[in-house]
Amino acid sequence: MAVIGEPQRIEYVEPLELPPPLRELPIEAPVSTPDEQEVPA
Amino acid sequence: MKHDAVPDFCEYRVGWRAWKPMEPHYLCAMNGNFIWTPKRIVQADKEPTMTNTHGVWAFTTLFDLRRMGYDTSGNILGRVAFWGTVVHHETGLRAEFAYPLELYVDRSENKRLGYRSSSHDELWERALRIGAEYNVPVKLLVPSEEETIALQKLEAARIEEERLRMLAMVEHRKQAQKDREAKRRAIARAALDFAKKHGFKM
């Protein structure tokens, strides 16, 4: 993962509410990404 | 997996990403293999860990995104919210969940491809349509004077790096040519010595 450097630490972030764009929308199942390997610019 | 530690902040993390706009109004990952579905949380295929490469990733700062050349003309930039398991890297992060907060069209003069004008206006129009689809605001990204100076330095460093790379390539080719000639001469000398030793006429 050279693009963003070496991993430093891990945490679990549980926000009190969803980000503003999603707050007023009906909650649907998340869409899963493929593994995002680093990509050339 | 939930980590045992209580989260230090009950707020999502924020990072910077770039996307390719895709018709009619989608954000497409830079490697082209994933479209961020509007109005749906994006989830990593697997939970990120300290040792794997999974997770939805981003740069910590806009400057880091630019430094790595992701601000290429035609890209849409954005601030993104991340949550769930988050692995912090030196200049970025990988997270389990993500969704864009704001989209930006870059007005920086410091474009690597060096063009704007009509293509810029077209990108702005597309970004507005995409923003409406994802329910996020779209803004123009106008770098401050300080950022402009930093970006100019960055561009100068890129040009210098490219110049040194070209020079190194030329030197490498010259050296390879010299090595080939030396080898050829050595073979010719060896053949001559062999001929003399065995009384052959060359």
Q: Could you please describe the fold and organization of this structure?
A:
The complex is a heterodimer of chains A (41) and B (202). Chain A is mostly beta strands and 41 residues long. Chain A is built from one helix and two strands, in the order βαβ. The radius of gyration of chain A is 15 Å and the shape is extended. Chain B contains three helices and eight strands, in the order βββββαββαβα. Chain B has 202 residues and is an alpha+beta fold. In chain B, strands 1, 2, 3, 4, 5, 6, 7 and 8 form an eight-stranded mixed sheet that branches. In chain B, a hairpin with a 6-residue loop joins β2 and β3. At the A-B interface, β1, α1 and β2 of A face β4, β5, β6 and β7 of B. β2 of chain A pairs parallel with β4 of chain B.
SSE arrangement:
The complex is a heterodimer of chains A (41) and B (202).
Chain A: E1 7-13, H1 20-23, E2 31-32
Chain B: E1 13-22, E2 26-28, E3 35-36, E4 42-43, E5 56-59, H1 62-67, E6 76-89, E7 92-106, H2 117-134, E8 138-141, H3 145-197
Parallel strand pairs in B: 7-8
Antiparallel strand pairs in B: 1-2, 1-6, 2-3, 4-7, 5-7, 6-7
| Percent strand of chain B | 25-35%
What is the subunit organization of this protein? heterodimer
Mean pLDDT of chain A: 78
CA(first)-CA(last) distance of chain B: 80 Å
Helix content of chain B: 25-40%
Strand content of chain A: 15-25%
